[in-house]
Specification:
The protein has helices spanning 18-33, 55-65, 83-86, 92-101, 135-143, 164-171, 210-217, 259-275, 306-322, 339-349; strands at residues 10-13, 38-40, 47-51, 74-76, 87-88, 106-112, 126-130, 148-149, 177-180, 191-194, 201-204, 221-222, 251-256, 280-285, 297-301, 327-331, 354-356. The protein is of the alpha/beta class. Bound molecules: adenosine monophosphate (AMP) and magnesium ion (MG).
């Protein structure tokens, strides 16, 4: 259905303080209970929330995002007890994870109960559940009835939103309300763990790392489709993995190797492209930024502060679009804890174009 962009989108500031946020959250709750959509901050990225137990709300989310309807939504709850209402057969390993990481940036896949419509789960008989730690998200979930489907608030295929301005760029005219809680804390979507088979598996890397999960669970696999390799013959367990994602309009290439080799390679590529009149940019670490001979260099962050890189990466990909960059070279950020999650987003944004030196 074509969008007329005819809805007026209100942007209300929120502070994570019950008293100050009462009016904004009250409004969000009314919209959600009437089956409408609200964008809200979470600690990972901004979410586009609708009532997870209403098929019509789930359909609205797919429409507003332009998301294929077989790409399931994550259900957000604000109290651990709510889980029993939507999920069954909760395995011991999942309980361990919930005790350690909820509320927080971890999503767990369970067998769903009938109350959860197939529209929310993209036709699957499993449901993805997360309990966010952001107080605005928690209050909004409460106000909206306790169960909010809330995928990332970007238009399908675009980088996730880490500020309310990103949400407004994608959703203005499509939703009635954006709650503006400022820039998010983490900047990468939640880690997803699946418990539908004997050995749990990591479906999407995030702030909670694979080694932390392995330490707690003992045994955990990495889903072979984790990086959404386009050529893979194996059906992905997280259906979202098969879609092109996070892509800027310019062509993104990742260059991996020693700092000397990477900067030399990128500098010679820039020189050639500038000669051809191509608008080129670099995504660099703080450590290497001075080594590039390019008018457009964006700093992702220090290799010694990977949280900074995680927080910045989506905003930089969006900035590339607003600067009309046609060709982008990024360093590989293979940092110890978040490297797997950061590189997962970058690889998919680059449609797997990686130059190994
Ligand atoms: P987003 O909401 O944009 O963070 O994307 C949610 C991700 O969770 C998608 O990649 C989905 O494929 C994945 N997901 C949601 N529900 C399920 C489920 N029941 N089984 C497997 N993956 C899921
Ligand atoms: Mg998403």
């Amino acid at each position: 259905m074509p969008w007329g962009n005819d809805l007026e989108t209100l942007i209300l500031p929120v502070f994570g303080d019950i008293e100050r946020d009462r009016e904004a959250i009250g409004k969000a709750g009314r919209i959600l209970k009437e089956g409408g959509l609200v964008a809200m901050p979470t600690e990972t990225v901004y979410g586009l929330a609708g009532d997870a137990l209403k098929a019509t709300s789930a359909r609205k989310i797919y429409e507003a995002k332009g998301r294929p309807s077989d790409n399931p939504l994550i259900v957000h709850i604000s109290k651990a007890e709510s889980l029993n209402y939507i999920a069954e057969d909760i395995p011991e390993g999942a309980r361990l994870l919930m005790e350690r990481y909820w509320p927080g940036p971890l999503t767990i896949i369970f067998k769903k109960k009938d109350i959860v419509p197939f529209e929310t789960t993209g036709g699957l008989d499993t449901v993805a559940v997360r309990m966010p730690s952001n107080p605005v998200a928690q209050e909004t979930i409460e106000a909206g009835g306790g169960f909010l489907a809330a995928p990332s608030a970007n238009k399908s295929g675009r980088p996730s939103c880490t500020t309310a301005a990103h949400v407004a760029a994608d959703m203005s005219g499509r939703i009635p309300l954006i709650l503006d809680g400022g820039p998010v804390g983490i900047g990468l979507e939640s880690t997803i763990v699946d418990f539908s088979e004997d050995v749990p598996s990591l479906l999407r890397p995030g702030y909670i790392s694979f080694s932390e999960l392995r330490e707690l669970l003992g045994n955990i696999n990495i889903d072979p489709n984790i990086n959404g390799a386009i050529s893979s013959d194996i059906a992905p367990k997280a259906p979202g993995m098969k879609y092109r994602h996070y892509a800027p309009k310019g062509e993104l290439k990742i260059v991996r190797g020693s700092a000397d080799c990477v900067t030399a390679y990128i500098n010679s590529a820039i020189l050639k492209e500038q000669g051809e009149g191509i608008r080129t940019a670099v995504i660099a670490s703080t450590e290497n930024v001075a080594l590039y001979d390019c008018p457009l260099v964006k700093i992702a962050g220090s290799l010694h502060n990977e949280e900074e890189i995680g927080k910045n990466i989506f905003a930089i990909l969006r900035e590339m679009d607003s600067l009309n960059v046609e060709s982008i070279y990024s360093e590989a950020f293979d940092t110890p804890k978040l490297g797997m999650a950061i590189m997962n987003r970058l690889l998919r944004a680059a449609a797997h174009k990686i130059i190994e030196l």
